[in-house]
Design a protein that fits this description.
Elements (H helix, E strand, L loop, with lengths): L1 E2 L4 E2 L3 E4 L8 H13 L4 E3 L8 H10 L8 E6 L1 E2 L8 E6 L5 E6 L3 H15 L4 E6 L8 H13 L3 E7 L3 H11 L6 E5 L11 H8 L2 E5 L17 H18 L3 H10 L6 E5 L3 H8 L8 H12 L11 H21 L1
Parallel strand pairs: 3-4, 3-13, 4-5, 5-9, 9-10, 10-11, 11-12, 12-13
Antiparallel strand pairs: 1-2, 6-8, 7-8
Helix pairs in contact: 1-2, 1-9, 3-4, 4-5, 7-8
This protein binds NADP nicotinamide-adenine-dinucleotide phosphate.
Amino acid sequence: MSNGATGLKTPRIIFGSMARGAQDDAARVEVLQCAITNGLTTIDTAPLYDFGQAERQIALATKSLPHHAVQIFTKVGLRWDAGDHGDILFEFTDKDGSRRAVRRNSRPESICWEVEQSLERLQLETLDLVQIHQPDEHTPVKETMSALLDLRSAGKIRHIGVSNFSPAQIKTAQQALGEVPLASTQNEYSLVRRQIEAELLPLCRARNIGVLAYSPLAAGALTGSSKAQITQPMQEVIDNRLQPLAAEHGVSPAAIALAWVCQQPGVTAAIAGASTTAQVLQQANALDLTLAEQTLNRLTTEFARSPLEYPEFPPKGIYRKTRRLVGIALRKLRLRK
Ligand SMILES: NC(=O)c1ccc[n+]([C@@H]2O[C@H](COP(=O)([O-])OP(=O)(O)OC[C@H]3O[C@@H](n4cnc5c(N)ncnc54)[C@H](OP(=O)(O)O)[C@@H]3O)[C@@H](O)[C@H]2O)c1
């Protein structure tokens, strides 16, 4: 699939390097190499994934491959290591038991620093695509985009994208880039999570912006491997439609769900995660699987009746609670002065 405005090309399935369970480097490298060998030659990653380790594992998995055999898409704009700057996206407990916060930070100096760090971890001189991971309401988009344009001029990045941006934020980002096209936006999309259909997909189609659909298997809910809350109606569609269709086509339910995403108008590619080589091989079957119009429509209609109900990520409660605590702390500080 290609994005006309930029010339950026990618297979319709992108390998997502965010590991969902604990895996050592050797196991992750094996899964990554299996993906590349089987045609999933674009890899999506981020500094946030395992706090830098996912990018290091990609470097390990690709070090003996020829230049340009693999395309790396990474992201910047979420910091867990930069003090108190930026709104908290979510909190977590570190390996040593201390509470840490991941914050939105798309300030120009932070973006430039992150790109250098990713280049080093990935052992690359240029990143194929750099995406702003999450919008940062406290940094003008123009400043962030200007930093990315400078990095592009310096040859450190080839293309510029965004992730989790709303349609309005996408328009602002595109405007801030001026002559340089916004290559892509990365947003959640699957048979059971269809919010982007209303506005974002039509906008990106009209403006020739690539759409990279993340969590296309609903984080494993569609394949029965996740702890997500599957409702009874959804389970029935999986059992009575998805699984028989998979058997009919001689592929896995995962491949059918991926093909559905990839065939939706405006979608450039699906970014799928996998924890085993067997899962990767099943996903690779979706690279050239084309579902008939009637099959697509049936899946669309039947899954529309059973949207996925699972907790938002990051949990909204945590975000609100943290904001409240930060507000109280700031007020106390002001009173002390
Ligand atoms: N931009 C963002 O904010 C953002 C957010 C989320 C994800 N992403 C990107 O999208 C990628 C994928 O997202 P995701 O992991 O949330 O969702 P996903 O691709 O919808 O689900 C991946 C999970 O589905 C299961 N699975 C995959 N293939 C399977 C198969 N053939 N048979 C059975 N089960 C299978 C595995 O679960 P088990 O591991 O449990 O077996 C796997 O971990 C990430 O790696 C990341 O690159 C981006």
